[in-house]
Structures are given as C-alpha cells and as structure tokens.
Amino acid sequence: MTEAREIRSLIDDVTARLETVSDTPRLEADLLVARAINMPRSYLFAHPDDELDDDALERLDGEVRRRLDGEPLAYIAGFKEFWSLELMVTPATLVPRPETERVVEIALNDIPRDRHTAVLDLGTGSGAIACAIAWERRMAHVTGVDISAAAVAVAEQNARQLDLDNLRFVEGSWTEPVRDLEYAVVVSNPPYVAADDCALKMLRREPVTALVPPGDELSAIRAVVDEAPRVLAPDGVLVFEHGADQAERVAALLAEAGWQAVEQFRDYAGLPRVTRARLEPV
Ligand code: GLN
Question: Which fold has domain 7-69?
Fold first, then answer.
C-alpha cells in the first residue's frame, strides 16, 4: 500500500493495482474503498478528500490482496446483483453472470403473469435464475434443483431474503427429485466449460463442478436435453445457457432429439448464448 489516505488517491491506487485481474478495475476500486469505510459508493464522490484511518486502510489492503489473488469481488462482498436483486453468493456457487439474465428474459415470455405456471431450474446454484423468475411472476411456482447441498442452502437463503414464497429448492441430480411432477418451463445454466479451457485460470476460485461438466463440454447440456422431456408438459419449453461457440452443436443435438422450434439468442456481447426449444409442435 502507498502512503495515500485520501479517498480520491486511494481509488486511483487501487484501480492501478487491480488492472491485471479485473476488466472493471475502477468500479471494483470504488466498491472496495466504500466497503473499507462502510459507506455507500455515492459517499465517495461527495467526499473525495476524506482520509481513511489505519483500520480502514488495513481492511482495504486485505481485500485488495484477496482480489489480486483471484477471489471474485462477489465472494469478498458476499453478494452479487442479478436482475436488480441482491443475491448472496459464497464459494459454493458460481457468481451470477449478466449474460444469464438473458435466460430469465427469454423464459419470462413463456410464463404468463396471471396464471399458475410450474417452472423448473436445473442446476440452480445460488438460485439466481429461479429467484428472478419467482420475483417477476408471483403466480408461477418455481422449483430449483442442485446436486450440491451447499448451493441449495445458499439458494434457500436468497429466497428467504427476497421474501419469495413461490419457489422451493431441492437437492438432487437434474430431474431425479422431481420425476413425478410436470412443468411448463424448464430453465438451466448448466456447466459447459471445456476442462482444458484457458479461461478456467481466471475462474479458479469458483466451484469447478459448476463450470466444467463431468464428461465432454456438452455432457451436462445433453443431460438437460435428455431429461427435460420426462418432466415437461406436452407443449412445454426448455430455455438454457451454453457456450458462445456451442450454439450450432446445441441446435443439432436438439434437432436430433426431436425438439421443435429451436431458437437461439445472443447475449449482451452479441454472442449466441441462450437456446429455447419446444417439446412438441403446437
Ligand atoms: N458463463 C460462465 C463463464 O464462462 C460459465 C457458466 C457455466 O459454465 N454455466 O464464465
């Protein structure tokens, strides 16, 4: 740490230190300095000349070091904003990504506001998709399934925190715990990163089982595509996220399995990231 104590120069220093690990170093510097003084970010702009005391400086340096060591800011802060909701995240779950909001956006088109609709989220993790859908559609009944008990505990806490009573979470492998039920919409953000993807180095603090599927990179997507028909209503739809370079293979896989009306959607970076398909022709 340098000699600086003033908010303004501390933000500059931290921004420079974070440049190697973050795409948004200035934003993260703001958030870390604000955390160190336990004030909202807006305070920083109004009080750029305030000085941090020794305790605050020490807290800041400790958290900057954790960030430099590859820990995502969301784990340091303990929460991440998704769909404008504040979600608790721990190292037991992936940090929710903005592109996953596309899954929510697209699935909402198939979930009417004024009718009871059963929705299933496979591999729910922190419950981000499930919570966002339950939040937007109070008449929907949302179930999130995850094989990780620790993830289910985080998801349940998020549902409680948001005061949502139209969703529940269960532990299990894909559709296994909900086999006797029927859903109108199945959503998923399954693991789809290849085991040899060099991007994994940047993601090393996140649970590898949430990123890399057990077989080849499409094995979890195949499990979702194979299992969804067991629990989908006859005119049900499946909406899921996949790698930007997997769109063609995903479409082929769905066509081969007899899915109808396959549509693909781009994420905010313009990359094909989400696919929607219908089980049977309407
Ligand atoms: N989109 C994430 C990433 O590449 C991966 C999420 C996933 O595997 N489902 O950072």
Answer: Helicase, Ruva Protein; domain 3 (1.10.8)
CB atoms within 10 A of CB 196: 8
Q: Is the CB of 211 under 6 A from ligand 1?
A: yes
Would the CB of 192 count as within 6 Å of ligand 1?
A: yes
Q: In what order do the strands lie in the sheet with 260-266?
A: 167-171, 140-146, 117-122, 183-188, 232-241, 272-278, 260-266
User: For 158-208, what is each residue's pLDDT tens digit?
Assistant: 999 999 999 999 999 999 999 999 999 999 999 999 999 999 998 999 999
Inter-residue contact 89 to 151 (CB < 8 Å): no
Integer-rounded Cα Rg, in Å, for the chain is: 21
Residue closest via CA to ligand 1's atom 1 equals 97
Q: At the fourth CATH level, which superfamily is domain 90-279?
A: Vaccinia Virus protein VP39 (3.40.50.150)
Contact present, 97 and 271 (Cβ < 8 Å): no
Atom of ligand 1 nearest to the CA of 206: 10
Whether pTM > 0.85 for this model: the answer is: yes
Q: What is the pLDDT of residues 241-266, one digit of tens each?
A: 999 999 999 999 999 999 999 999 99
